[in-house]
Design a protein that fits this description.
Number of domains: 2
Distance between the termini: 10 Å
Shape: globular
Order of helices and strands: EEEHHHEEEHEEEHEHHE
CATH architecture of the largest domain: Alpha-Beta Complex
Largest sheet: 5 strands, antiparallel
Radius of gyration: 18 Å
Strand content: 35-45%
CATH class of the largest domain: Alpha Beta
Helix content: 10-25%
Number of strands: 11
Strand order of the largest sheet: 4-3-2-1-5
Length: 189
């Protein structure tokens, strides 16, 4: 099942929806609003729910806007320096990597989907990109074991992490370079 966020109108709500492809035809089946979806995401992605959606609306994908299926209040946590070759490319090449991972956040307003123009901040020659994997976590966790953490992942997505490197290197914190408007693309395929 491929879950996407869908806006039917520019000012309307975002719906958690199921993306369906049948040959050349792609449609979205609106499941529920995002708040209801994230209140119990496991119920919405269960096999039983696929056929038990009363009054579901279906739209051709070209008639709606596809958006990330995340609430405005969602926490988007990213792991930095997550492989040696990448760490060696940057300013950390002469340092020992820290044992706990480098974690940084992203604003949900910096998330977008594929085929969306991404502005380049002034003073940047362009944006760096890194292909990442995003995990959608369906329940709150604290001090969880690896098995407990895996049990609450409801799905995965590719995540194109775009970074304004010149801006990022202005301080020891990564926030400035990781928050240009619409700096992350989600590919829900």
């Amino acid at each position: 099942m491929r879950i996407v966020g869908v806006k039917v109108s520019a000012t309307g709500p975002v719906f958690a929806s199921r993306l369906e492809e049948d040959g050349d035809q792609s449609t979205v089946l609106l499941l529920t609003d995002l708040q209801a979806f994230w209140s119990d995401p496991f119920a919405w992605v269960s096999a039983d729910k696929e056929t038990a959606i009363p009054d579901a609306r279906v739209f051709p994908v070209q008639d709606v806007s596809i958006v990330p299926p995340v609430l405005p209040s969602a926490r988007v946590l990213c792991i930095g320096l997550n492989y040696l070759a990448h760490a060696a490319e940057g300013s950390h090449r002469h340092e020992e990597l820290p044992s706990p991972p480098t974690v940084f956040g992203r604003w949900t307003q910096s998330l977008t989907t594929g085929n969306t123009a991404v502005p380049v901040p002034s003073g940047e020659n362009g944006l760096d990109w890194e292909g990442e994997i995003a995990a959608y976590v369906g329940k709150s966790l604290s001090d969880a074991s690896a098995d407990a953490a895996r049990a609450v992942v409801i799905g995965f997505s590719t995540f194109n992490d775009l970074t304004a490197r010149t801006t990022q290197k202005l301080t020891s914190q990564w926030t400035l370079g990781k928050k240009p408007t619409a700096a992350v693309r989600w590919d829900l395929s």
